[in-house]
């Protein structure tokens, strides 16, 4: 389903009904004969009094029509205002700015967003020139709403936050809450429902405190929207009906119509189809009467969904096409490929679903490809990683539907490029750019290299395919709700995909169960059954495509390209068994292993290696003194770093209080090898704030090197090793702890992660953590950990790893050799000691 996008407008302040400061000009009975003494100084002398009186009368006529929701009459009245203003060369910009605001409102209500944006900007320029900060903020608010409706979410958030800053500085609590609600609406568009819910509930409390009934009702409406998205349909219906009661009491017909549309959607989810159609048609009649084309398109789409659920497929397709026809009547906004892309892609996806129901496979494939084309065009306007990641998650289903359909109909090779296009695109954006600097610049950087263009991705993928060594195979997984697919790339060609009949839910449950066992205390008896079973699921079906292991000499190499929950799995620990179960071995015994977010990103990681600092220099930080007694010190890490440093002709080691962020900032540019042996924490809710513990200084007092700060490092490193805990993904126990803290439960209250929380935790493809931050800052590869590892075995593994690289092994071979040494050490045979570290990026 799709909601009427103009719901963004419902919680904003109304259009201006008065002119500041000349409020006397706006009496409804104003006439040209108004006494001279009441006109602003200079109006009479300049001969403007009669004309301005006519403008004011026309303005008030427009306001009256606007209140009556007669938008055509209001638009004509405001046009008359402008004609009079221009014809008499009136030099009263404030007067013009006010009716421009209201004209923009009309354009917005009718879905004419490009025109609304133009007039809002004109009004804003008047306020900027007069340094009217609050008026500028109000226009930023309006502009943000237009951007949200255009699908330009990054620009919308920027505009909203600019306005919110002004209101907050002036302690305008209600206005801050209004902006916060609009930010919550953008979060809803992006599928960030938890963040949206927090915003709506807190804002409702503000409005209720101030007795603002209509705004509180609008928050009920938005809360209902989130409930609907989350599948809490009865709660959604109750919230909508509560809001509708208030709107009806105040005779707000537009708001009532919008609520009717949304109630129709909920009825559809509840399979109360006749009630759904009745509510939607009632809303549609109102929108048609008021010439609100965009709202009509939304309702047509939702009617199509009801018809689809009823099995009336031809009626559904007609409704979808009617919606597309309305969208096509409006040309795309400047610089955009499609008009209304945020609505259009959903309609195309649903058309594809209906074509599948009718077994019209070619038509379904065409519709899904159309949806992906719109999704990727819209994504090009997003600049910050968090929004791109949210958008990728929001739209991932379309890629999955297309890939599944192509595979089911024997077009698995055609599906592979879409698997590449549907994963880790944010990472690809960053790899193709230079270091981006501060956290503000991280948010501001756009796609400048064009690497996410589908043709560019295809070329990059082909370059990697043809460049893989003969003894190397890449396994690219793609996890969907119904099955998992894996392509094996080897000897210059793509094999498969092979279908693994295990869904995302099954894999997630098995991976979580396995990780909980791996991360538990090593004193517990180790049960290898999960690792054996996961090998049989994920590796055995493609064994015939893999390079053979002889047990002697060079060992073949596997590049694992995970998907979803598989990012949380240490493939090196999966256990191969012979057919009679008489023999077994971890996968790392038979292969060297590395990882990559996608095949295309390997090209850029390898280019980073070519640009790495050529001199063999080493920078090591270990066991910083954070000043926080709750953070356990790591004295073995100092020995580890000093031992490794001896392997390099040029080395610098900083430990204890010297292991500061300033050292990393000032010395990382000239280090080819960097080892940071300290505590780390992955933040699953805001990955840009994942951090490594460092020693505080007067300038950097927090004792944390955050992921967003890593982006500013001008790295030329071939390898960064994060010998720390939780630098790749979060631990399950910490996730449970955060949830417990948020809900305020008793310490003894057990926490069971929901399926949605586990899915979020193991989403994988767009994880933004320290690993990706270091690669994006210039490192060609990063070695980081999945769980907290004992310092003793970690030190042994790290020293061995560097020694083997110094002996001429590539990174993947060196890591394998180091892991085998730890594995064969007495008391360290369990994977908990040796399997935590994943090599991401260039393995050479």
Give a structural overview.
The chain is 55% helix and 9% strand. It contains 34 helices and 16 strands. With 844 residues, it is α/β, with parallel strands linked by helices. α26 links the parallel β8 and β9 (650-656). The model is unreliable at 3-48, 424-451, 726-731, 734-747 and 762-768 (pLDDT under 50). The strands form 4 sheets. The chain has a 6-stranded mixed β-sheet with strand order 9-8-10-14-15-16, sandwiched between helices. The relative contact order is 0.06. α15 runs antiparallel to α16.
Structural class of the helix and strand makeup? alpha/beta
Task: Tell the overall outline.
Answer: globular
Spatial ordering of strands, largest sheet: 9-8-10-14-15-16
The radius of gyration over CA amounts to 30 Å
**What characterizes the major β-sheet?**
6 strands, mixed
Tally of alpha and pi helices? 34
On the 0 to 100 scale, the average pLDDT is 79
Low-confidence stretches: 3-48, 424-451, 726-731, 734-747, 762-768
What is the tally of beta strands?
A: 16
Fraction in helix: 40-55%
Distance between the termini: 48 Å
Q: What proportion strand? A: 5-15%
List descriptors.
6-stranded mixed beta sheet, 844 residues, disordered N terminus, 16 strands, 5-stranded mixed beta sheet, alpha/beta
């Amino acid at each position: 389903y799709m909601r009427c996008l103009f719901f963004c407008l419902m919680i904003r302040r109304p259009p201006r009904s008065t002119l500041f400061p000349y409020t006397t000009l706006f009496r409804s009975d104003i006439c040209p004969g108004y006494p001279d003494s009441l006109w602003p100084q200079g109006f009479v002398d300049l001969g403007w009094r009669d004309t301005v009186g006519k403008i004011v009368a026309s303005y008030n006529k427009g306001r009256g029509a606007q209140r009556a929701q007669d938008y055509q009459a209001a638009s004509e009245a405001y046009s008359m205002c402008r004609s009079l203003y221009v014809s008499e060369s009136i030099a009263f910009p404030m007067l013009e700015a006010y009716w421009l605001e209201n004209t923009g409102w009309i354009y917005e209500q009718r879905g004419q967003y490009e025109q609304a944006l133009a007039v809002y900007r004109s009004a804003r320029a008047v306020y900027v020139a007069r340094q009217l900060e609050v008026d500028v903020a109000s226009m930023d608010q309006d502009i943000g709403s237009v951007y949200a409706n255009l699908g330009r979410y990054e620009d919308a958030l920027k505009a909203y936050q600019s306005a919110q800053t002004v209101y907050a500085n002036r302690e305008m609590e209600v206005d801050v809450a209004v902006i916060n609600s609009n930010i919550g609406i953008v979060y809803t568009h992006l599928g960030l429902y938890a963040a949206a819910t927090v915003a709506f509930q807190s804002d409702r409390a503000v409005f209720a405190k101030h007795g603002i009934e209509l705004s509180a009702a609008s928050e009920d409406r938005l809360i209902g929207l989130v409930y609907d998205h989350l599948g809490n349909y009865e709660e959604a219906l109750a919230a909508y009906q509560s809001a509708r009661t208030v709107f009806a009491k105040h005779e707000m017909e537009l708001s009532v119509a919008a609520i009717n549309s949304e109630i129709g959607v909920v009825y559809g989810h509840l399979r109360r189809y006749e009630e759904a159609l009745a509510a939607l048609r009632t809303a549609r009649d109102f929108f048609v009467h008021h010439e609100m084309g965009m709202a009509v398109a939304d309702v047509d789409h939702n009617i199509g969904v009801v018809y689809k659920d009823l099995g009336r497929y031809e009626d559904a397709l007609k409704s979808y096409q009617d919606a597309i026809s309305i969208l096509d009547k409006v040309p795309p906004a400047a610089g955009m490929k499609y008009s209304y892309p945020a609505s259009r892609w959903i309609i195309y996806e649903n058309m594809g679903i209906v074509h599948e129901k009718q077994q019209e496979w070619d038509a379904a494939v065409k519709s899904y490809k159309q949806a992906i084309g719109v999704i990727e065009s819209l994504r090009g306007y997003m600049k910050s990683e968090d929004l791109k990641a949210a958008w990728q998650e929001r739209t991932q289903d379309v890629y999955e539907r297309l890939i599944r359909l192509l595979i089911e109909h024997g077009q698995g090779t055609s599906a592979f490029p879409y698997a590449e296009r549907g994963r880790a695109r944010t990472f690809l954006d960053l790899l193709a750019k230079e270091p981006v600097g501060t956290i503000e610049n991280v948010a501001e950087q756009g796609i400048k290299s064009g690497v996410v263009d589908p043709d560019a991705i295809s070329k990059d993928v082909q370059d990697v395919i043809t460049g893989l060594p003969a003894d190397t195979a890449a396994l690219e997984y793609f996890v969907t709700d119904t099955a998992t697919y894996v392509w094996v790339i080897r000897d210059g060609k793509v094999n498969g995909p092979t279908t693994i009949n295990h869904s995302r839910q099954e894999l997630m449950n098995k991976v979580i169960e396995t990780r909980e066992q791996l991360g538990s205390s090593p004193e517990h008896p180790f049960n290898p059954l999960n690792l054996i079973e996961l090998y049989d699921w994920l590796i055995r079906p493609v064994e015939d495509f893999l390079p053979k292991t002889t047990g002697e000499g060079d060992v073949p190499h596997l590049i694992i390209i995970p998907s979803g929950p598989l990012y949380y799995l240490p493939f090196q620990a999966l256990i191969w068994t012979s057919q009679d179960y008489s023999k077994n071995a971890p996968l790392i015994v038979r292969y060297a292993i590395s990882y990559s977010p996608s095949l295309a990103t390997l090209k850029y990681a390898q280019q980073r290696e070519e640009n790495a600092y050529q001199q063999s220099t080493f920078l090591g930080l270990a066991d910083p003194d954070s000043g926080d007694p709750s953070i356990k010190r790591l004295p073995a890490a100092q020995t580890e770093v000093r031992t490794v440093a001896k392997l390099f002709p040029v080395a610098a080691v900083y430990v204890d209080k010297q292991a500061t962020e300033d050292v990393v900032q000032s010395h990382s540019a000239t280090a080819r090898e960097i080892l940071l042996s300290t505590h780390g924490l992955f933040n699953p809710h805001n990955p840009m704030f994942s951090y490594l513990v460092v020693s505080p200084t007067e300038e950097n007092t927090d004792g944390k090197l955050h992921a967003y700060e890593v982006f500013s490092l001008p790295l030329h490193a071939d390898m960064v090793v994060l010998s720390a805990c939780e630098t790749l993904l979060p631990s399950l126990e910490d996730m449970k702890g955060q949830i417990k803290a948020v809900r305020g439960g008793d310490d003894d209250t057990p926490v069971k992660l929901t399926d949605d929380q586990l899915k979020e935790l193991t989403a994988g493809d767009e994880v933004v953590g320290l690993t990706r931050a270091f690669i994006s800052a210039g490192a060609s590869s990063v070695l980081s950990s999945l769980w907290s590892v004992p310092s003793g075995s970690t030190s042994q593994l790290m020293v061995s790893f560097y020694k083997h690289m110094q002996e001429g092994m590539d990174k993947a071979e060196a890591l394998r050799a180091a892991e085998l040494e730890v594995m064969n050490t007495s008391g360290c045979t369990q994977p908990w000691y040796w399997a935590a570290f994943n090599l991401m990026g260039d393995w050479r």
